[in-house]
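Changelog-linked ticket: zinc ion example.
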Amino acid sequence: MTSTPVWLEHPSSLLHETGPHPEQPARITAIEHELAARDWLGFERMTSPAIDRAVLTAVHPEAYVASIERVCATGGGFLDADTVVSPQSFEAALHAAGGAVRMVDLLLDGEAPRAFSAHRPPGHHAQTSRAMGFCLFNNVAVAAQYALDRRGLDRVMIVDWDVHHGNGTNDIFHASDRVLFVSIHQSPLYPGTGPAGDVGSGEGRGFTVNLPVPPGAGDRLFCSLVDQVVAPLARSFSPQLMLISAGYDAHRDDPLAECELTDDGFAAMARSLRRTSEALDAPLGCVLEGGYALGALARSVAATLAALNEPLPAPEPDDGGDAPLIVRYARERLAQSWPALA
Ligand SMILES: [Zn+2]
């Protein structure tokens, strides 16, 4: 087992052209510029392969994949009001999903203890047969499905801290008890899904955990939810792999939402999830989602990488009695399915 964490990237991320749009190639350039100035924070850079089509179609039907390929091959265009593709977007999307899948292999093969897959387009809004919200293929969902189908895992946890609800991921694993999906997101906000009452269905009931927060939530509420809800859920579920849908649009500088997080807030969440993953002996990987204030995005990704690679400080003593009301209500509500949260 090597101790060097890995950064996965591919130049095609810069070729997915969206015109005047918040989800733009400059997002990747800004991140790379920040990380280069900081010597990549000790991460080893790797180039992501395109995804094996059979792995992709475990989540997205071939007809849907072919439709995206066709629209790109014929010049591109709008797939919905927010989601646009250019001729090379299909290639970019294949590498975005491929990076997430390669990351799973590196983590499960012990070749990296932690990793970050950083590509465009993002993925968490993509449904099995529908592109939406700047997303074409659901990268994190494809990676989780791969871990189950091809790597023989039984339990994968996905923590989505993007400020928008990860509706695609939510729906793809809605009826599964093998993927615990936990989303912290601003409500009300696009795409309008993810109420606390959406807890999954069938065998998956209880394995979808939605934690909507109001505008202005800030570092304290996000971090309290991670420490006092997400971490105990992880200890109860005991995942063999933890994936973070790492969006940075909850940042106070972000133009698309109002959650007011700081760079330090993202670092604190990353540290907490890393601590949890290490305690559970489950490797931890991040998949880039949103984040549209270029400076804030770049700094917060760097803060995440630092948190994932620097020595962990001693945990803060948790007095437990001072949790925000939203956290206390969430724990009470979830205790029905997860007694450890009582
Ligand atoms: Zn978002």
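Closing comment: Example verified and attached. DSSP finds ten helices and ten strands in the chain. The first strand starts at residue 6 and ends at 9.
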